[in-house]
Write a structure and sequence with these properties.
The protein has a domain of about 100 residues: Arc Repressor Mutant, subunit A. Helix 5 crosses helix 6. The chain is globular. By secondary structure, it is mostly helical. The two termini are about 25 Å apart. It has 15 helices and 7 strands. The longest helix has 28 residues.
């Protein structure tokens, strides 16, 4: 299993350090296609942990400003700081990063941010001004700085733990393959993320930012996506119970899981109040988003005013392509983290 060298991060891979030139070399790492295949064939085993991680992270994102777009822009800017450290081969621990009084961004390019996030430039400008008004970022000459308010707003203590739980279960699945080696405990994983936080979280954002952008583009906004997601998680919880009870067949792949979940008819759906409580989005907003989802034929409502996924949603092909695309990127993220733990010079003593 091999892939071309990423020259920006090659220094962290021990076996290559003694080689005089890295140009056009190949080095052994985990293969993301094989990781994807294994995870797909065991799709049901990690979905609950993945949903919990995503839901907790997204709820925290919304809670920060009651506005997903502002948080998405904030995350994008933080990731530019991570990238700057990575380009200089500086890798800070969790405590080192959040102990800093100020973090510097050389400049903000509104057009570039607009293109990357698929958000209109004027909206980006308004949200950046909002971040300045909130004293989260400020200018010194041409440079942009984060204030230490970032410590409270973007410090992912809970997400680290939930990510470690997800990766522990994933490693237990992958360790059945001879090419993977031993599994990792959640304690080992969290300790590794703590010690090499900026590079681990940079890769999380590399996956998460496009993930959110794809959903924002498909649903129109992230609030609507989160409302739809709460319905999907409720439906999956019912479906998962029936799998454990051997009432329905265990899905064989990601594609199977997707189709089975859409076609599954739960005994009960989920109402607007419960969605509001789970997502922390105001009930009035939830009701407005539910009306939109009904109009777009993405969900259905029963006589008890409970919502469920529609078995054949509008634009089902695009829906499925987006879902499968997300699974590929998730496998890529998993591969990268375990590559760092197994094949790099980063070690936890």
């Amino acid at each position: 299993m091999s892939k071309p060298i990423d020259l920006k991060t090659v220094k962290i891979f021990e076996p290559l350090k003694k080689k005089p030139s890295f140009e056009n070399k190949i080095f052994n790492t985990l293969n993301p296609d094989l990781v994807y295949e294994v995870l797909s064939n065991n799709s049901n085993e990690t979905v609950t942990l993945w949903f919990k991680l995503q839901q907790a992270w997204c709820n925290n994102a919304y809670n920060t400003f009651k506005d997903y777009d502002s948080y998405l822009i904030l995350v994008y800017l933080v990731n530019t700081v991570f990238q700057k450290y990575s380009d200089r081969f500086q890798f800070l621990s969790y405590e080192e990063f959040y102990a800093k009084d100020e973090l510097v961004i050389d400049k903000i390019n509104l057009i570039e941010i607009s293109k990357e996030l698929n958000i209109p430039k004027e909206t980006i400008r308004r949200k950046v001004n909002f971040l300045q008004d909130q004293n989260i970022i400020f200018r010194k000459g041409k440079a942009i700085f984060f204030s230490n308010a970032i410590n409270k707003m973007q410090r992912p203590a809970n997400s680290k733990k939930m990510m470690s739980n997800f990766l522990e279960k994933t490693s237990q699945i992958l360790t059945k393959e001879t090419w993977f080696g031993r599994a990792f405990s959640k304690e080992e994983i969290e300790e590794f993320i703590d010690k090499y936080f900026t590079i681990c979280w940079q890769h999380w954002f590399r996956m998460q930012i496009p993930f959110l952008v794809r959903h924002r583009t498909f649903f129109g906004d992230l609030e609507t996506w989160n409302v739809w997601g709460a319905i999907g998680i409720s439906q999956f919880t019912d479906y998962s119970k029936q799998i454990k009870g051997r009432v329905v067949e265990d899905p064989r792949t990601y594609a199977d899981l997707y189709l089975h979940l859409l076609r599954h008819t739960p005994k009960n759906g989920i109402n607007a109040s419960s969605i509001s409580e789970i997502s922390r989005i105001p009930r009035a907003t939830v009701i407005r988003k539910l009306k939109y989802l009904l109009k777009q034929k993405l969900v259905m409502k029963n006589k008890k005013l409970e919502y469920m996924l529609l078995p054949s949603p509008k634009n089902i092909k695009s829906f499925e392509q987006n879902y499968m695309h997300n699974q590929k990127h998730k496998a890529g993220f998993v591969t990268t983290i375990f590559d760092l733990m197994k094949n790099s010079s980063f070690k936890v003593e």
